[in-house]
Amino acid sequence: MNAPVNPHAQARAIRIAVLAMGGEGGGVLADWIVSLAEHGGYIAQSTSVPGVAQRTGATIYYLELFPRAAAEAAGRLPVLALMPAPGDVDIVIASELMEAGRAVQRGLVTPDRTTLIASTNRVYAMTEKIALADGRVEDPVLRDACRTAAKRFIACDMAAIAERSGSVISAAMFGALASAGVLPFAREDFEATIARAGVGVAASKRAFAEAYEVAAGRAPDTPLPDPRSRKAEILAHRPPPDDAAALEREAADALPAEAMEIAKAGIERLADYQDIAYARLYLHRLKAVAEADRAHGDGSFRLTSETARHLALGMAYEDTIRVAELKTRASRFERVAKEVRLKPGQILEIEEYLHPRLQEIAETVPAWLGKAMLRPGALRNLIERLTSEGRTVKTTSVRGFLQLYAVASLKPWRRKSLRYTAEQDHLEGWLAQVRATAATDYALALELVECRNLVKGYGDTHERGRASYARIVGLLPRVAALATPAAALAQLRAAALADETGAKLEEATARLGLA
Amino acid sequence: MAERSFKEEVKSLYLGDGDEFHGEGILAITKALLQAGVSYVGGYQGAPISHLMDVLADANDILEDLGVHFESSASEATAAAMLAASVHYPLRGAVTFKSTVGTNVASDALANLASGGVKGGAMIIVGEDYGEGSSIMQERSHPFAMKSQIWLLDPKPNLPTIVDMVEKGFELSEASNTPVMLQVRIRACHVYGRFKTRDNVRPSFTLRDAMENPVRDVNRIVLPPASYLHEKEKVEKRWPAAIKFIEEHGLNEMTDGDLSDIGIVLQGGMYNTALRALELNGLADAFGNARVPLYVLNVTYPLVDAEFVRFCAGKRAVLIVEEGQPEFIEQAVNTMLRRADIQAKVHGKDLLPMAGEYTGAVMKDGLGKFVALYHPDAVAGSGAPPEGDNRRKAAMAALDGKVHGRPPSFCTGCPERPIFTAMKLVERELGPHHVSCDIGCHLFSILPPFNIGATTMGYGLGGAGAAAFNAPSDKRVISVMGDGGFWHNGLLSSIGNAVFNKSDNVFLVVDNGYSAATGGQDILSSHLPNPIRATRNGIEKAVRGIGVTWARTLTRTYDLKAMTRTLREALTTPEKGPKVIVAQSECMLNRQRRVKPLVNQAIKDGKRVVRERFGVDPDTCTGDHSCIRLSGCPSLTVAPNPDPLRKDPVTRVIDSCVGCGLCGEVSHAAVLCPSFYKASIVNNPTPADHRRARFRRAVLGYLQRRMARKAVAA
Predict the structure, then answer these.
(1) Which of B133, B276, B636 lies at the smallest CB-CB distance from A49?
(2) Helices B226-233 & B101-116, crossing angle to 10 degrees?
(3) Residue of B558, B617, B667 to mutate for A, most A C-beta atoms under 10 A
(4) Among A97, A484, B22, B315, which residue's Cβ finds the most Cβ atoms within 10 Å?
(5) Which ranges carry the 4Fe-4S ferredoxin-type domain (chain B) (predicted)?
(6) Judging by beta carbons within 10 Å of its beta carbon (0-12, 13-18, 19+), is residue A358 exposed, middle or buried?
(7) Is the dihedral of CA A496, A502, A504, A506 positive or negative?
(8) Residue B707 pLDDT level (bands cut at 50, 70, 90)
(9) How confident is the model at residue B518 (pLDDT cuts 50, 70, 90)?
(10) Rounded Cα gap, residues A339 and B676, in angstroms
């Protein structure tokens, strides 16, 4: 019969869980830890359920390390587990922020025991990506949960480190693990492990070294450049300084300070989109809303600033002229070269996937011609035949560039197009309704402003958005009669963005008793 | 060419007496087979056994050196039938497949094999696919063993025990003239560990010996009256022989503990989790010394009554740890103890869940409860996870609904994706159709973003699953099947059946050149040559051979226009009989593995190489993400909108893009937006390339400056 055991007096295996997605090198990291441990006087066991890791699935690699000396002293081999038990994991390493969240949700991370080492980059889940608007889970929610659940939370953007080092994220994760000091091995042992594996050693060591410093807070945690921090190409062509400055001064006098940042961006956008007169029209329209805001608002001036946003986007609608102009700019060529990581000595060619249809063409040309195109007849048939299929245009070739250049040159005639008239009418109608609604229900007016977000895109997407918008605005008088009109409108707007078929919008309409 | 190469790892198969093996479970099993002097090996891939098949394929030279024949079987039925070689001859043979899906397919052969019995050791190594990561069917192999009376080994999940049980299993099979099944759970297949090796054994009696000196014994054939005798023989001879062997060789293990009035009986495969659960309850140390007596069943069928009686005698209670349902062992133990009039109370499914995986948490809870019932003071509260801890609970609650699932999905550039995009586009025109699915990567189409498919009935049974819908209707049913499923079972069960029964439906065969879902193994119609197998046997030829008249092969699935046109035609043609579309393009995962090194070498060698990838212009993207919904490519993602006026994230193509072109095709076909562009990056451009580029830069630069001037002047 065995003597009663006191497990707390005994050696304990170090338990490590690695959460990663297919192709991220979770397996490589597990192999490195095994090799590190075996060379450092430990017995190592690792296992995983690899089938699902392929093809973008998430998986957990699980490792246990046991001191060989303790096993030899006991004269027995330890029994090592093949899967983590909640509350029993010493180290959790996650390759991505939501995977760290997954570890927390599965109970693997506990405040008394677990050091959570996570990369803070996001690889969005399919459900986040397919949303019609913004379906992303907010980073702070995930971070806070990690911080709350872990004994120690070590986080930095390891994907950025890997990218900068020309390596893979597993090497950065290994560096962060070494830096955390939670394993009984020295930095040199970790680096020797990378060298033993013998694949991409130099790059892996660079990523390891940077992560080692960053994870410890000795070097700045620099994410990859945020696209917001650089100037969008849209703004690359600034209007003449004096004109714009004059208009901006005028805006500053007439608009509340809270709305100025967006209004300024709007003025620049529209001067670039058409001309300074168009920007002036924008300001004129916005002033009227600001007046209504002053009269009926709550002092936040959200109505003015949100209208400033949606009005600018609505006035700078994407027609073929705009697309052609944006696609042919020098700054755009530079951006593409950067995005595809063009190296010196390589040549870049760009082919656009375009599908202009009769409708878009007819709306772009002067109104008389547009109407003629839309009338049933030979001209219409010809254009329809020519545009039945999408086309590719090589903008880096002279011939392709000239095609788009010609379309972009139609800009001075834009005001004479069918689309221009239709868009301005639509916007005027929307603004009038916003002003009128603000007088009776400020919150509802704000929601009505937000409804403009439904109208976006091109082709089918645009038509669908227009239809949802029309449907919702059509319901407005009846929505206003409900107990909480603003909340109801917000629900309808969210429902319109919940699916492509409009089924969710109809459901919401019925639920609110508006059907 | 399989997804993972074991060329380096298989070198450890040469280890000899007294060496130490380091590696994965599957490799250890292969080594054990060679140490046991196996003559032939077959099998069918499928997780978790795919890698075992890949190891064997990569070890083909080593196997040939030892005179061992290895086959990639056409199906699990083929593999099981292969064991017929051990019926009359003293040949040791092993086959392997995923269970229970594979065991279902193999059942016919297994029943016949088990009926007549074997002379040489016959082993079926099943990858028990139960619990997390299980792709299909939360079923167990246990009842298969029971119904055919095949002995079931369920070794402790450490390499020394697994290896030992392979060798003992052959001996057990020969001692009892019965095939044995060795069950290895998914984590055990992939567990990295160590064991002391022995020399490989060259079989003393070879396949050639058998072929040149054929033997037959009518009494081994499953035909009356011999088959009546088989049942008698099973009960009267083979079973007692097996029991005797198991007892004499101590295949099951019993350990003592100071809490001797209770005991735990467990499946061998549950050992490590159970011991950890005891450790967490303060009832065991790290070395497996437990305070509760344990009876570890490395053989879960047949059970040895005498051992149970010995273990349970004088105890107040025992707990049976048996994962999955029904609880066969628990039921059997109750009968045994009643017969022996032993009063120990039998716990099992009352303290542990009836169904589902016995994870660390489940076991800790169940085992703790059991011991606490009889020795409340023995179960430690400390060292346990802080169940009442508010911080952990708060964190978990905060994440409710925030952690999204990541189901497996089509890879970047997967050629199957355009097929489903085409189906979505045709659906817009012709309305939705009933879609019958099959097993394989293409089954990911049932998940977002495609949401296509209604049922899946089994491998190669996509077409058969639509068989009832062979009635007059204005709409046809579409069945989808992969090339793997097609050769496994589909040619006859789905296509042949449709021809014979004059079905009018549409049958889509996804021909990506490999059994891609199981790891990219070659199959009959693989498009590339394979030195040890006969490939390049076309699917259209096969279906025409069994009577299909309307068959179309598309050689580039990325051609969305052709794909939609063909689908539309198949759904609307007045022609009678099954409409078979073979949609071909190479599995991108395999293609990249094959082509990438060649391309990199060519670039290094200074050759002109053009790499294509796609991109999205963020200033024309409006953040609607239709493109992602119609494509679902992992290289399409969302990114913060660089436009300060917009909030919704834009679509971005990340550098993993392989330039398959689907997103461009989709934006054309669905008239999405003008944001997609294809970038062609010319490596090592020629002087002519440079001249052309210089000329273009000059002209375009002039025009761009002119455009900028006009903008300022406006």
Answers:
(1) B133
(2) 100
(3) B617
(4) A97
(5) 612-643
(6) buried
(7) positive
(8) confident
(9) confident
(10) 13
Of A110, A92, A203, residue with least CA distance to A148: A110
Report how far Cα A472 is from the mean position of its chain's Cα atoms. 27
Q: How far is CA B142 from CA B32, B112, B133, B215, in A?
A: 23, 18, 20, 33
Taking chain A (515 residues) in runs of 10, the rounded mean pLDDT of each run is 45 94 86 97 90 64 96 94 93 96 94 96 91 91 95 96 93 97 97 92 96 94 64 49 81 93 93 93 96 92 96 94 94 92 94 90 90 91 88 95 95 94 95 95 96 86 89 92 93 90 91 87
Residues B300 and B239 in one domain: no
**Interchain proximity B671–A459, CB inside 8 Å:** yes
Residue B8 lies in a domain: no
Which residues on A lie below 8 Å from B441 (Cβ)? 55
Are residues B287 and B186 part of one domain? no
CA distance A374 to A384: 10
Assess A86–B contact: CB distance below 8 Å, yes or no: yes
- Is B207 a member of any domain? no
Q: Which domain holds residue B548?
A: 417-590
ipTM of the complex: 0.92
When CB atoms are compared, the residue of A11, A326, A346 closest to B620 is A326
Q: Which two tokens stand for residue B33?
A: 């087979």
A20 interfaces chain B, CB cutoff of 8 Å = no
| Dihedral (CA of A155, A158, A160, A165) sign | positive
For B267-313, write each residue's pLDDT tens digit: 999 999 999 999 999 999 999 999 999 999 999 999 999 999 999 99
The class that CATH gives domain A11-224 is alpha beta
| Residue B153 amino acid letter | L
> Among candidates A180, A100, B678, B526, which has minimal Cα distance to A190?
A180
Q: Do A351 and B674 touch (CB under 8 A)?
A: no
B679 and chain A in contact, CB less than 8 A: yes
Query: Distances from the Cα of B505 to the Cαs of A221, A480, B482, B690, in angstroms?
Result: 58, 52, 17, 54
Chain B residue with Cα closest to A323:
B620
CB B475 within 8 A of CB B572: no
Model pLDDT, residue A241: 61
Q: What is the mean pLDDT of chain B?
A: 93
**What string of H, E and C letters represents the secondary structure of A131-151?**
CCCCCCCCHHHHHHHHHHHCC
Contact B169, B125 (CB under 8 A): no
Between the alpha carbon of residue A153 and those of residues A111, A173, A366, the distances in Å are: 10, 14, 62
Other Cβ atoms less than 10 A from the Cβ of A59: the count is 24
Distance CA B628, CA A500 (A): 13
